[in-house]
Design goal:
heterotrimer, A mainly alpha (202), B alpha/beta (580), C alpha/beta (279), A: 202 residues, mainly alpha, Ferritin, 5 helices, 54% helix, B: 580 residues, alpha/beta, Pyruvate-ferredoxin Oxidoreductase, domain 3, Rossmann fold, 7-stranded mixed sheet, 36% helix, 19% strand, binds thiamine diphosphate, binds iron/sulfur cluster
Chain lengths: 202, 580, 279
């Protein structure tokens, strides 16, 4: 979901700021990482999936708490799918030496999140499955671009090959999500309509 | 609808509209109440919701009646849910029985067991599908139509409210949503019956639709308040939000303070400058103001603090009502610090009581605490336009002070004319230090005693008139209560009266200074006294025991929030007791 | 505890996340802050039982219960005071104080000054959304002067508070700004803040999507600071005074000695004190 389009700007006034719009902190689709060998590369790929698993599950929790069962279910499903991917990578590439997650999660080079990790800032409590799939699509596209970049730039041939394979796989996922989007009803025009005021507390 | 059931007596009909995730039940509830009001009924609406700021589960709880109503009923006739998600979280607030009807959407699953276990009937209407079938319409408008039809509210009344809401600004929304209301209305014709509203004539006398928070804000202005400082806090913020533009219109101003210490000291400063001033808060804020309230007592600076009580202590249950600030309001100040404590006894009375508080504070140059609560503050109600009152804040001012001016002169009434900054010859220092008549700091026993006496005297000698309490009825049993328990007590007494049991009601508006003689007078001949309040420790009961003489046997009926005290509990207690 | 006989597995961020689901609006920046905090704790290999998360009142201040650490959800504006008391009485604990801009700069403004001055070894995180979220949208000290609300029709017209400058002037030893939309970057900075002795202040731009939906655009506005971390307060002051409010990074890192009032050695029994009363 491109928030600018999907989320209506209902604020009374845009923040008055003199700040020039510069590059966002998060440089999509993730800055390249320097990987030493294929194992190192696959470990990164595995961690990337795990980060995505965790994020989708957090998003599902948030939607559940806000009484949006359709999107909750969808994020749970996406989380399960990413878990399958992670398991697959582990089994096919890392079964000999299962890696250990570094504390604090994955250190992507620019300190940013993994390319396949959904941005929690894109959520809206009234969002519809279509929006959630748009988020998923963006994740898959970033992942695909990320691997493509490595496939082009890595020095190690084995890494380049593995990255090509991963990129191909992610491209397939992009296709899958695109198909899924086609089958999913477009959001209602007034999908974020909520006539009631926010609740105040504390 | 099959056989129509007439609503009994003044109880009217009680309706809950529930839904989650932004279903718009509050908006539907507001429209239903407005439609009823315009067609001549009385009513009120309470909001309840989960802790989520957005998208949480929510319910609009309404009671509509041909006669004035001041509280929710003990039970609901009708619950309509757009969905049932997490509605069980407020099952306690939705008492149902075999006579009640639930209307749900079959595509949204079944109601939670807590709601079905009392044998309540369930009817199904595909609310969301129906809305979907009318592009541009919303499920809450279907719900509105169903509710109106079931309780016997004319379709036209609802439609005109929808027209007013969407007709001007959002014309394209009007047609589909009117169609949705009609579809909902039509779908209800085959549903089981619920009690219908008793017929009314269109009103001849003016009525208002407002919350207690708005009423209190208006009362403050009527009393003469022109400066307000406050810090946002649930459930009091709306008073500030209402007052901010209103003050601008009548020639005053409002400041958002950085905290409650600032709010109270700002209004003390403004009032020292001669401008009647008020702040608004809830328990945690009142606690922070306690120090400066002592200053206002000592320096004799009139200020009004409106405390919209919520569940406490500490953050407690912020959006729910509880009468648990009685003790801090009465006794929370340090030192010997007599002051005024006033409690409105209905939503409409939030206006009168606040206006009166401004008047008293100004007349006696004393801080006044007004104890409203979340129920009053945030409930929307249809009320008869309150009568105009002559209570205006008027301060005794030193018009032409001379060199011998004594700011704290020991007058017989205890009130000493106040010189307002800018008045030549009247300069003095308002002081929290114990002072003599001129305001010069003193630690002498005689000065301390004289000033303590004077400040006590001015409150005790004032003639509060009949306004100190609402007193109703006869009988050997009396119920003493205050604030938002007054509504359920009145309902209970009406039920007792129908059984032939006579009960006296004393709803105290002036909590402090205590009026023991007046209460004794009101209770003459009473043998049994029931004290009703909504808190855990019986703060009001203890106060009555300590500072008043209560005749005969005294019992306390109380429980804390968030659940209101129901008329049924009070009625049962009275009938049981009357048989003994 | 006796020395560990088995090498403990490195702790994960997930170990710091409690089972409670936040009440925050989906899209709220505070979700990411929670994730950053848990990551920072894991990076530092802390144990939940040795960490206390102390907060005031507000949406953001709900954070302690969403961690598995010892939590203290106190009263509005007083989190720093409670956190200071805790850290001074229990220097062995890692104390993280967290809250919103209203909580920290308005009602808690005074404590903010003195906490910076006092320089007790704790980390203070402010999830700044330039608004009071919990009470439905009143202006806070960091709200732009022309932002309209019910309480301030036409805007407050007031100059905004500059927490970083105030922190610097008041003596904070570590001053950083991060953006919630960059949770891993934020985690790094929080970890750095915790690691740095003394009072560490981390201002996190955390969008309120409900009351300030335009803050979703902060993604495009946040940018890395163009200067490196300095330990020179004068340099930091000059940079901060011309700051656009969206510079991300550690902007000042001093080397003031943290304040820890001397704890007595406790060589005497309480009863020994009676001696001074005897005649
Ligand atoms: C003494 C006191 N005054 C007022 C309040 C009401 N209150 C609760 S949270 C809050 C402001 C919250 O704003 P902020 O700290 O910016 O946090 P956010 O909700 O935006 O995360 C206020 C005024 C309170 N709880 N206690
Ligand atoms: S109201 Fe704003 S600050 Fe509060 S949870 Fe929602 S988005 Fe976050």
């Amino acid at each position: 979901m491109s928030t600018k389009k999907a989320v209506k700007q209902t604020g009374r006034k845009k923040a008055a700021t003199s700040a020039k719009v510069r590059a966002p902190v998060r440089k999509k689709p993730g800055s390249p990482i320097s990987v030493t060998d294929e194992i190192d590369f696959m470990t990164r790929a595995w961690m990337m999936e795990l980060e995505a698993v965790e994020r989708y599950s957090t998003l599902a929790d948030a939607m559940e708490e806000h009484n949006n069962p359709e999107v909750t279910e969808l994020f749970r499903k996406l989380s399960r799918i990413e878990q399958l991917h992670a398991d697959q990578i582990l089994e096919e590439h890392l079964s000999k030496r299962p890696p250990v997650l570094p504390p604090g999660g994955i250190r992507w080079d620019a300190g940013e999140e993994g390319p396949e990790t959904a941005d929690p800032g894109e959520l809206h409590y009234r969002m519809q499955p279509y929006h959630a799939l748009q988020i998923a699509l963006a994740c898959e596209q970033r992942a695909c671009q990320f691997f493509t970049k490595i496939a082009r730039s890595a020095k190690n041939t084995a890494v380049r090959k593995a990255a090509r394979e991963m990129a191909a796989e992610e491209a397939e996922h992009v296709q899958l999500v695109e198909d899924w989007l086609k089958r999913t009803p477009k959001p209602d025009p007034d999908w974020d309509h909520d006539p009631d005021p926010p609740v105040q507390s504390d | 609808m099959h056989d129509k059931v007439k609503a009994q007596g003044g109880r009217g009909v009680s309706i809950a509209l529930a839904g989650s995730g932004g279903a718009g039940v509050m908006t539907a509830g507001n429209m239903l109440l407005k439609a009823a009001a315009q067609a001549g009924w009385y009513g009120l609406m309470v909001r309840t919701s989960g802790p989520q700021i957005r998208g949480g589960e929510a319910a609009a709880l309404l009671r509509i009646s041909a006669e004035p109503v001041e509280c929710l009923d003990d039970r609901f006739d009708l619950v309509i849910a757009i969905d049932w998600q997490n509605i069980h979280r407020f099952a306690d607030e939705l008492p149902l029985d075999a006579g009640s009807l639930m209307v749900g959407d079959p595509d949204q699953g079944n109601p939670p067991e807590v709601l079905t276990q009392r044998g309540t009937r369930l009817a199904q209407v595909p609310i969301k599908k129906m809305a979907k079938a009318i592009p541009g319409s919303w499920p809450n408008m279907i719900m509105l139509g169903i509710a109106a039809a079931l309780v016997g509210l004319p379709l036209d009344a609802v439609k005109s409210v929808v027209e007013a809401a969407y007709g001007k600004k959002k014309k394209e929304l009007l047609t589909p949503n009117l169609a949705a209301v009609e579809a909902g209305f039509a779908s209800a014709q085959t549903l089981p019956a619920v009690p219908q509203l008793a017929a009314v004539e269109p009103t001849q006398t003016p009525r208002w639709l407002l919350t207690g928070n708005q009423a209190a804000g208006y009362g403050a202005l009527r009393g003469g308040v022109r400066f307000v400082a406050g810090y946002p806090i649930t459930p009091a913020t709306e008073v500030l939000e209402w007052l901010s533009p209103a003050l601008t219109k009548v020639g005053g101003t409002l400041l958002q303070a950085e905290d409650e210490l600032a709010s109270i000291n700002m209004i003390i400063g403004a009032s020292f400058g001669g401008v009647p001033s008020l702040t608004v808060t809830a328990g945690p804020g009142l606690a922070l103001m306690a120090e400066a309230l002592g200053l206002a007592v000592a320096a004799e600076v009139p200020v009004v603090v409106l405390d919209v009580m919520r569940g406490g202590p500490s953050t407690g249950i912020p959006a729910k009502s509880e009468q648990s600030d009685v003790s801090i309001a009465l006794f929370g100040l340090h030192g010997d610090a007599p002051h005024l404590v006033i409690a409105p006894n209905s939503i409409a009375d939030c206006l009168g009581a606040t206006q009166w508080a401004v008047h008293l504070a100004e007349a006696m140059q004393s801080p006044a605490i007004v104890l409203s609560d979340q129920f009053f503050g945030q409930t929307q109600a249809v009320v008869d336009r309150p009568a105009d009152m002559h209570f205006i804040g008027e301060r005794a001012k030193a018009s032409a002070p001379t060199e011998a001016y004594k700011r704290y002169a020991l007058t017989e009434s205890g009130v000493s004319p106040m010189s307002i900054p800018g008045t030549p010859g009247g300069a003095y220092t308002a002081d929290g230090l114990t002072h003599n008549e001129r305001g010069v700091p003193s630690s002498q026993a005689a000065d301390h005693l004289a000033q303590l006496d004077k400040r006590e005297r001015k409150l005790l000698r004032h003639d509060y008139g009949d306004y100190w309490a609402e007193i109703d009825g006869q009988g050997e049993i009396a119920v003493i209560t205050f604030g938002s328990c007054t509504g359920p007590v009145r309902d209970a007494l009406a039920r007792a009266a129908a059984d032939g049991i006579k009960v006296r009601l004393v709803s105290m508006r002036l909590l402090a200074p205590a009026q023991p003689e007046r209460l004794s007078e009101a209770l003459r001949g009473v043998k049994k006294v029931l004290v009703v309040e909504q808190n855990h420790s019986g703060q009001f009961h203890r106060y009555l025991r300590a500072d008043f003489d209560l005749p005969g046997e005294v019992r306390s009926l109380r429980h804390p929030g968030p659940l209101p005290i129901h008329a049924e509990e009070i009625y049962r207690k009275i009938t049981e007791w009357s048989l003994m | 505890m006796s020395t560990a006989s088995v090498a403990a597995a490195p702790i994960t961020a997930a170990a710091f996340k409690s089972a409670y689901k936040p009440i925050w609006c989906p899209g709220c920046g505070d979700y990411s802050v929670l994730s950053s905090i848990t990551k920072a704790f894991a990076m530092l290999d802390l144990r939940p039982e040795n960490v206390a998360v102390v907060s005031g009142i507000g949406c953001s201040s709900r954070i302690p219960a969403y961690t598995t650490c010892y939590g203290f959800h106190g009263v509005h504006g007083r989190a720093l005071a409670a956190g200071t008391g805790l850290k001074v009485a229990r220097p062995d604990l890692t104390v993280l104080v967290a809250g919103g801009d209203g909580d920290g700069y308005s009602i808690g403004g005074n404590h903010f000054l003195h906490a910076c001055r006092r320089n007790v070894d704790l980390t203070y995180i402010v999830m700044d959304n330039h608004v009071y979220g919990m009470t439905k949208g009143q202006p806070s000290p960091t709200t732009e002067p022309d932002w309209e609300s019910k309480l301030s029709p036409g805007g407050t017209g007031l100059r905004t508070f500059h927490p970083l400058v105030v922190a610097l002037a008041s003596g904070a030893n570590f001053i950083a700004r991060t953006f919630a939309g960059d949770p891993n970057g934020t985690a790094q900075i929080i970890a750095d803040a915790i690691r740095t002795p003394g009072f560490s202040f981390v201002e996190i731009l955390s969008p309120c999507v409900t009351l300030r939906p335009e803050q979703r655009g902060w993604k495009e506005q946040a940018h890395p600071a163009s200067v490196a971390t300095t330990s020179d307060p004068a340099k930091a002051a000059r940079y901060l005074m011309t700051d656009d409010g969206f510079n991300i990074g550690v902007l000042y890192k001093g080397n003031r000695k943290p304040y820890q009032p001397p704890m007595g050695k406790g060589t005497k029994r309480v009863a020994d004190l009676e001696a001074e009363f005897s005649i």
